[in-house]
Amino acid sequence: MVIGIIEDDNLLNQALNKVLRDHGYDTVCAHSGQEAQNIFCKQIDLLLVDIGLPDGDGRRLYRKLNKTKEIPAIFLTARDEEKDMLEAFDAGADDYVVKPFSMKVLLKRIEVVLKRKKAGKVLACGGITLYPERKQVFSGSEEISLTAKEYQLLEFFMENQNQVLTKEIILDRIWGLDSAFIEENTVSVAISRLKKKLGQEQSHIRNVFGLGYRMGE
After folding, report:
1. Rounded to two decimals, what is the model's pTM?
2. How big is the chain by its Cα radius of gyration, in Å?
3. Whose CA is closest to 53, among 35, 74, 71, 26?
4. Residue 69, pLDDT score
5. CA–CA separation, 71 vs 93, rounded Å?
């Protein structure tokens, strides 16, 4: 999961970045509205947006960033008046956190927002359909039985379609801390088994020579 941080306070930006990465999230950071527009990509899963940015209102910025893809957002602000909260929700906020806040509470709110958004999501590629909330996978109309690792691998591919995923990235994301003790060909073997279960022609998972793997139609 990738979380975008738009916060002009350098210390808070750095603290958020460290805490989120320590808890397994990838991050993209910006300190102003202009910087956010220049560096943010479509792969962001959730935004943390400071309302009081140096070059404009974070709510206005969020509306702009949200035009091409609906991205859930949690607004961060020192303002705790009802009017400000209502305006944030009118702008599309999924949650609203008043500074100063507990990092543990913020992490829990992030978890809740992501879980809520994921519940109604369906991932599809060619004839493969994956239902994250139900942990079910179908090839056409046939349900496919996968091991836990095979499911995690497929979900990772489907969430990052058309992107090249290196073996190192896959090992780190799917095997985590255990990746240091995994044999070099583990990823290749796991992908080969996954493709066989899905049907070689249906899987849409291809080797990108010298780089890694890509899933896409």
Report:
1. 0.58
2. 19
3. 35
4. 66
5. 10
